Amino acid sequence: MVDLKSHWEKVYQTKRPTEVSWFQPHLAQSLEIISRMDFDRNVEIIDIGGGASALVDDLLNHGYRHMTVLDMSQEALNISKRRLGGQSKNVTWIEGDITAVDLPQHHYDLWHDRAVFHFLTRADERYRYMDILKKTLKPGGHVIIATFGPQGPTHCSGLDVARYSPEGLLAELGQNFKLAESLEEDHKTPGGTAQKFIYCHFIRGSSNAK
Ligand SMILES: C[S@@+](CC[C@H](N)C(=O)[O-])C[C@H]1O[C@@H](n2cnc3c(N)ncnc32)[C@H](O)[C@@H]1O
Fold first, then answer.
1. pTM above 0.85, yes or no
2. pLDDT in tens for each of the 210 residues of the chain?
3. CA–CA separation, 107 and 122 (whole Å)
4. For ligand 1, is residue 117 a contact (CB within 6 Å)?
5. C-alpha 150 to ligand 1 mean position (Å)
């Protein structure tokens, strides 16, 4: 079995952040969805598997003050910290596995995940991911999950991935969530290949029910 932590550490140790297939200078679709939420700037946001992505830089620049970036790879977090320089102290960094990490209860207003959930190809991993999401997201909280769409690739970074429709992702989240919006994207990898992504915005009901 692949040691996933070693796998991801090696990716970030051996490739420049701009060379990985999922690289985007800005997560434009996520930023567009977040801008429509019209959030107070004090909301708590967590980027799951944020890697070396610049979403945190962009949200800090938009005035958000309570950002957490979680990733399995310490190397990925270090790349983001170095890029942010002095601003990195304004971010909470968590090195951890999103299927096993301990996060504060009902704490986050927005859970953001681009290209992480689709790596969870086993039902028990997905169950643990959703259990952690539901424990740590506030009632009424927002979720953005971006995955490969139904016509997307079947592998990424040498690993198997699952592909989703918005309805398929909603079914994974369960009855207490509703789909607010979904967007499609033809992501161009740095190597020039097109990959079909979907970005979905879900809203949790006002109770803590799963
Ligand atoms: C395809 S990259 C996406 C990175 C970033 N979200 C972006 O859009 O640029 C997947 C990221 O998820 C992280 N990752 C994979 N499995 C994880 C897990 N179980 N828990 C936490 N992070 C994970 C990897 O280290 C990697 O940074």
1. yes
2. 679 999 999 999 999 999 999 999 999 999 999 999 999 999 999 999 999 999 999 999 999 999 999 999 999 999 999 999 999 999 999 999 999 999 999 999 999 999 999 999 999 999 999 999 999 999 999 999 999 999 999 999 999 999 999 999 999 999 999 999 999 999 999 999 999 999 999 999 987 666
3. 27
4. no
5. 20
Tell me, in angstroms, the distance from the centre of ligand 1 to residue 210's CA.
25
Architecture of domain 33-175: 3-Layer(aba) Sandwich (3.40)
**12 neighbors 51 (Cβ within 8 angstroms):** yes
Q: Is 73 in the pocket of ligand 1 (CB under 6 A)?
A: yes
Whether ligand 1 lies within 6 angstroms of the CB of 72 is answered as: yes
**Residue 138 CB less than 6 A away from ligand 1:** no
Atom in ligand 1 nearest the alpha carbon of residue 24: 9
Close Cβ partners of 135 (under 8 Å, ≥ 6 residues apart): 103, 105, 106
Strands (E), 115-190: 137-148, 155-156, 159-160, 177-188
Q: CA-CA distance, 99 to 105, in Å (whole number)?
A: 15
